[in-house]
Amino acid sequence: MFNKKQNQELSPDIMAFKNALEEVRFTPEVEHDAELIEIFDEAIDKAEKGEAVQTIYGRLSYQITEYIQTHHFKAPKPVSDFIHGSKRSILSGLTSVPVSWNTVH
């Protein structure tokens, strides 16, 4: 009936990733874009359910790439910073994320 991972405590990796997602999601630039809100809310929900960081990031990367392609190759700065790894200060402690975000497919 209930997903067992929902009842378990989230790993430090997933919590750090979820916090990074929320930091981007609640920026003023993203707050006013329904499409990005939906993308980041979906990723946050998956993190809260304990899904693997690589899986969430892979899907998120794909969705943001689609977003950028359909918006004249532009995205809000917090989104592009996140996807290009400048959030490493927040994410550097993650053990389940590759060193280079660009290698995740």
UniProtKB/TrEMBL annotation:
Q: Name one Pfam family in it.
A: EntA_Immun
Which residue windows are transmembrane per the record? none
Q: Which SUPFAM superfamilies match?
A: Bacteriocin immunity protein-like
Q: Which keywords does this chain's UniProt record carry? A: Bacteriocin immunity
Task: List this protein's GO terms for biological process.
Answer: bacteriocin immunity
User: What protein is this chain from?
Assistant: Bacteriocin immunity protein
In its UniProt entry, the species of origin is given as Lactobacillus xujianguonis
